[in-house]
Amino acid sequence: MHPVNWAIVIVYLAYVVWDGLRRAKGTDEIEGYFLARRSLPWWVVGLSVMATQFSAVTMIGTTGQGATDGMRFVQFYFGLPLAMIILSVTLVPFLYRAKVFTAYEYLERRFDPKTRTLTALLFLVSRGMSAGVIISAPAVVFAAVFGWPVWASVALIGVPTVLYTMIGGVQAVAWADVKQMVLIVFALFAIVIVLLLGFPDGVGITDALTLAGTTGRLQAFDFHFDLSQKYTFWSGLIGGTFLMMSYFGTDQSQVQRHLTASSVDSARSSLFMSAYWKIPLQALVLMVGILVFVFYLFVRPPLLFNPAHEALVRDAAGGEYAQLESRYEQAFDRRRAAAEAIADARAGGNDTEERASIEQFRAREAEIEAIRDDALSLAGRVTGGESDDVNYIIPRFVLGQLPIGLAGIFIAGVLAAAMSSIAAELNALSTATVIDFYRRYVRTDGPDSHFLAVSKLATGFWGLFACVVAIYAVALGSLIEVVNRFGSFFYGSILGVFLLAPLKIANGRGAFVGLIAGMAVVGVVNFKVPSVQYLWHNVIGAVVVVAVGLLVSMTGGSPPDRAVAASPASPRPES
Amino acid sequence: MPPEQTDARDLDERAERQHLRSVFKRVMSVQVIALLLLWMLQHLFGNG
Fold first, then answer.
1. Residues in B 11-30 with any Cβ partner in A closer than 8 A
2. What pLDDT shows up at residue A571?
3. Does residue A396 sit within a domain?
4. Is residue A397, in this structure, part of any structural domain at all?
5. Domain containing A55: what range?
6. Cβ contacts (< 8 Å) between A268 and chain B: which residues?
7. Fewer CB atoms inside 10 A, N or C side of chain A?
8. With 90 as the cut, is the pLDDT of residue A371 above it?
């Protein structure tokens, strides 16, 4: 990468750390460190919520998915606006007014300690591992693209993030998120403009969209009701609503964002920001990938986008790869000619010629895809694993095609996306560790300074843990997959517990048994009916927990003994 | 609780409900427009 690009990345990293620490006021007490003394304006919280969810995987993986699969993935977010509205009138005001540090703390007030401890433990296990995955995904890509060892990439992302999160607490995280979100959006718009200007003469935006649409990449809606399809309108709307309600309403990494708001209205407004902007932003991210696909119709891309795999294949199977490359060059020239013929036919207003060119183009595209499949299979054979280079499409494009300066801004944007997500995770992991375990079971009383010191140590510990997981993520691949899969078992189930909370009839035993039953049923569905896609697991988990929880509560004999007074249906705690 | 406090609280809650209803309408309108745009994109350019 050009030194100017490196300078941009380094200046950006230094600025984020310096500014995060500078803004870390009031972190000399635990409420300031974890909740910013509930003082942040709605737009800071709103941008922080969006930045937390927008990880480096979104910047490089989702854009790559746009290039290979098109707009389909946007359906995943169709339930988000509805989930935000439901949360803003139910859980958000309630958790905010309950004056809790963690969502799980509320479960003890409403149900019992074991329900709180189990949900907090599930959060720590899954999020501890996922923090490592969030670092490792971009670190592995950076290592391959720049030729570094993985640990160096992990250190580049992890060290500054741990530093400002550990010292500055949630205020540093939230204010850093604001800049990171601005940088991310700027980088995305800049890349779109460069792409539009980079098409050859005679190829306009409508030609580009026609070319993308011809290959099915503008297919944003699939109305088939099929549980085995990962992304459909219905899985996004129904499964997505449950998933987003669980993520934004019960996951500490998100709950902690809106607990820092200056009022209930601010907390609500912060969620409405995502409700308004998430789908358009996600469409923009996918559109970047789609436009990169169109760009590569006229400029020949590498046959394999992962440079590390490309080098290994050249060494181990040079002859076979050279043959594939030769076929690829010829097929690329034929596809480019077909793409240009479409643009010419459109310019001449010749419908018959345009239809014939489109058929030609589709046939050439299929040819290219077949050669790419052969190359990926060869890479898989050489490297001894499955080779998938979706995550490398955008980084290779950025480093090879973007002008000096803009490439640096994009790489800084990827770092920003990674850092904002990791910082939120570390902050939340530390909060749950200290509030739900240390202060609950180890030392229930003590000076604020003691808990503050323990909180900083906990942040540092989880940062170190995440970095170690990230470094060994490749070797731990199957273990991480197990943990992620395990995580999908309980997302919907935890939501079910929170849905039980406002129901007066529900008690602690019902909630705990329901939670176990929900996770077990999702586990059985996952292994026995693997065709059911994971978005539906959230619906199944939540419904089973509520049904079993109510049944057990009703048959358990003892009436609800805990603070139904703390349920949303009851008067507000502070009024 | 004195009656005047109860009345004030009822008014607050009514205003809050009205505010949330209007936000709900705005959010859903923006989403419908966004989905319509995606739908148009798919159908104007998607069939070739």
1. 20, 23-24, 27-28, 30
2. 31
3. no
4. no
5. 3-296+402-566
6. 20, 23
7. C
8. yes
Residues A78 and A181 in one domain: yes
Question: Distance between CA A29 and CA A228 in Å, rounded?
Answer: 50
* Number of A–B residue contacts, CB under 8 Å: 63
Same domain, yes or no, for A167 and A113?
A: yes
Q: Does B8 touch chain A (CB under 8 A)?
A: no
The verdict on A218 and A322 lying in the same domain is no
Q: Are residues A201 and A333 in the same domain?
A: no
Judged by DSSP in three states, A152 sits in: helix
Same domain, A21 and A140: yes
Residue of A nearest to B46 (CA): A213
What mean pLDDT is predicted for residues B14-30? 84
pLDDT, residue A36, reads 87
pLDDT band at A229 (very low <50, low <70, confident <90, very high): confident
A412 and A557 in a single domain? The answer is: yes
Which of A407, A436, A357 is closest to A109 using CA atoms? Answer: A436
* Interface residue B33 vs chain A (CB under 8 A): no
Check B48 against A283: CB less than 8 A apart.
no
**Which residues form the domain of B18?**
1-48
Rounded-to-integer distance, Cα A498 and Cα A490, Å: 12
What percentage of residues in chain A have a pLDDT greater than 70?
Answer: 93
* Distance spanning both ends of chain A, measured CA to CA: 59
Q: Is B23–A272 a contact, with Cβ atoms under 8 angstroms apart?
A: yes
The closest of A161, A157, A127 to A143, measured between CA atoms, is: A157
Mean pLDDT of A500-525: 92
- Residue A571 belongs to a domain: no
Residue A562 confidence (pLDDT) above 70: no
Residue A149 neighbours by CB distance under 10 Å: 11
User: Domains in chain A: how many in total?
Assistant: 2
Query: Could you read off the pLDDT of A428-483 as tens digits, one per residue?
Result: 999 999 999 999 999 988 888 899 999 999 999 999 999 998 888 766 655 555 55
Task: Tell me if B42 and A213 make a contact (CB, 8 A cut-off).
Answer: yes
**Prediction pTM value:** 0.88
Q: How many CB atoms lie within 10 A of CB A290?
A: 26
Of B24, B30, B45, Cβ closest to residue A218: B45
Domain-embedded: residue A575: no
Mean pLDDT of A411-431: 90
Q: Measured between CB atoms, does B31 come within 8 Å of chain A?
A: yes
Give the ipTM: 0.81
Residue type, A432: A
